[in-house]
Amino acid sequence: MQALMLLLWAGALLGPGSCQDNAGSLEDSPAPDTTGVPVEEEDPFFKVPVNKLAAAISNFGYDLYRVRSSLSPTANVLLSPLSVATALSALSLGAEQRTESTIHRALYYDLISNPDIHGTYKELLAAVTAPQKNFKSASRIIFERKLRIKSSFVAPLEKSYGTRPRILTGNSRLDLQEVNNWVQAQMKGKIARSTREIPSEISILLLGVAYFKGQWVTKFDPRKTSLEDFHLDEERTVRVPMMSDPKAILRYGLDSDLSCKIAQLPLTGSMSIIFFLPLKVTQNLTMIEESLTSEFIHDIDRELKTIQAVLTIPKLKLSYEGEVTKSLQEMKLQSLFDSPDFTKITGKPIKLTQVEHRGGFEWNEDGASTAPSTGLQPARLTFPLDYHLNQPFIFVLRDTDTGALLFIGKILDPRGI
């Protein structure tokens, strides 16, 4: 069981060596979601249908991230699981019971009682893509050429997910151009056009795209941004642009079980980024990754304490384009690629062939204000605290209003994916 150990005692922040003696264990979070532990019913936050749905698909997102990360142990990972979850949830509208259950279990729908999952999903998408969020997400289902699709599938798809399926022409150049045009329109030109050809043997292709450019509640002073060392490991360092704030107001905690320092920075639009920074550059990130669930992140959001710290953080501009097909196949979804039942879509046997993801993510010094909010009163510290993201770390972009996981990243080298 995870226990978030916050080092605040008698008005002073204590060093890591003191935590076992003086820091109390705060509320235990549930075990990792791989055990099938349901969302905490007693927490009023999760009683709101949109929040409960957000928790379910976010737990799918943490599962997907873990598999993706294990497949790329030495590379950066950037993922917007919501866009993939949306495509899968939309596809389930065309699935008969056996196949629908397979998708719903992966999305943790089997742990929530909601007679109108798809209607609630529409509310969630509207909430997290509101203009002030600076977050764009879209999904699309693409079918093989000459497929006859039932109108009884298209109508609810359009109603709940605001999208229509696309039928391939069979001309790979024209099909790629059409998909790129759709992505450009959805993402307002923020994601580069793909050069990856659409395979000719596609039966069902799912496409999820997302883009985020964060705006901090308190902006960084560009004059304080400079080239600093980022420690890739004990021996290797690279020089990257690091933003700094000697008097940053942030929310902080130290988890002694995970041996990491956790910080949360607020973004405009009721968004926040939570950082997980290992105490040692050589530390394996797997234990932190295994702890990530909607419930654990929600507990962190409640328990972190507001402090003032010397903060440095790399400027970040990352993009990803590729498949998450293999990751999904390892998440008990293999049957979708073998012999699924999509007879609600068409009378012809079809199956999932490929799942593509495109994502763009960036932050720089931009912020809404040059001064911290007067409503934030940091705890008094007996000595200055430093929080330097100058070594491999994990970040979670979370919508505060719904608790939805919007982006997650493993940053081993901030120079790029």
TrEMBL record:
<feature type="domain" description="Serpin">
    <location>
        <begin position="62"/>
        <end position="414"/>
    </location>
</feature>
<dbReference type="InterPro" id="IPR023795">
    <property type="entry name" value="Serpin_CS"/>
</dbReference>
<dbReference type="InterPro" id="IPR042178">
    <property type="entry name" value="Serpin_sf_1"/>
</dbReference>
<dbReference type="InterPro" id="IPR023796">
    <property type="entry name" value="Serpin_dom"/>
</dbReference>
<dbReference type="GO" id="GO:0016525">
    <property type="term" value="P:negative regulation of angiogenesis"/>
</dbReference>
<dbReference type="InterPro" id="IPR042185">
    <property type="entry name" value="Serpin_sf_2"/>
</dbReference>
<dbReference type="GO" id="GO:0060770">
    <property type="term" value="P:negative regulation of epithelial cell proliferation involved in prostate gland development"/>
</dbReference>
<feature type="signal peptide">
    <location>
        <begin position="1"/>
        <end position="19"/>
    </location>
</feature>
<comment type="similarity">
    <text>Belongs to the serpin family.</text>
</comment>
<keyword id="KW-0732">Signal</keyword>
<dbReference type="InterPro" id="IPR036186">
    <property type="entry name" value="Serpin_sf"/>
</dbReference>
<dbReference type="GO" id="GO:0050769">
    <property type="term" value="P:positive regulation of neurogenesis"/>
</dbReference>
<dbReference type="GO" id="GO:0004867">
    <property type="term" value="F:serine-type endopeptidase inhibitor activity"/>
</dbReference>
<dbReference type="GO" id="GO:0060767">
    <property type="term" value="P:epithelial cell proliferation involved in prostate gland development"/>
</dbReference>
<protein>
    <submittedName>
        <fullName>Serpin family F member 1</fullName>
    </submittedName>
</protein>
<dbReference type="GO" id="GO:0005615">
    <property type="term" value="C:extracellular space"/>
</dbReference>
<dbReference type="InterPro" id="IPR033832">
    <property type="entry name" value="PEDF_serpin_dom"/>
</dbReference>
<dbReference type="InterPro" id="IPR000215">
    <property type="entry name" value="Serpin_fam"/>
</dbReference>
<keyword id="KW-0325">Glycoprotein</keyword>
<keyword id="KW-0964">Secreted</keyword>
<dbReference type="Pfam" id="PF00079">
    <property type="entry name" value="Serpin"/>
</dbReference>
